[in-house]
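Q: Two folds, back to back.
A: First:
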Amino acid sequence: NFGGDCAVRLGDVLVRVLPGRSGAGEKVSVVVRPERVRLGVMSENTAVVMDGHIHQAVYLGPMRKYVIETAGGIRFIARVHSGSADAAFEAGQHVRISWGLADGVVLPSG
């Protein structure tokens, strides 16, 4: 517990989340909308930071889609505008991913 927030273990990283509908010790999934995942850029509302590498980079016209894999094998999808500062990554490149506390939704697994 982080002062009202809760924590979920994603691989070997303890991640802050808002309280969900699951109890302590239950298996859960943390879902973050792809456009809310930030790459390499952190702001004052950043609550979660993880390191990973770009597994796949796909150019989609005005957007780029990235599949990021952490050292623990967890995959995230990020979608960013092609012209933004956090849109110039290539496959294999190390990247820091982050999102705000309210962006992570906890759902029961199973």
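A: Second:
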Amino acid sequence: EQEKVLNIKPVLKKEKQEKEELPATLPLKAYTGVYHQNEFGDATVSVVNDTLRFQLKKVDAKLKHVSEDTFNFHVPGAGDFDLTFSVRNGKAESLTFDIVDPICELKKVR
């Protein structure tokens, strides 16, 4: 099975820009899996009651679809964050999320 990895890239939180809402490019199940990055560890994306969930360390949040492969999640006390999947050849290969500090891209490992 092909390993998917998160890449770390410095990104600063930007003002949200209004995007045209386009449908997700994949069925929800295709985004599910375990994504990994050495500093952050494993993150899990699963489907619960027809909704994607994102789990990383103490974060366990519902993903709300924004447009195409971008979703949004809320962390109490920290705010809202965008999470974008990188899709190639019809498969989710990694995910990246915006945070105030440097961000990381986690690759799907299973």
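Q: And?
A: Strands lie at 6-9, 33-37, 41-48, 51-56, 59-67, 70-75, 79-88, 91-97, 103-108.
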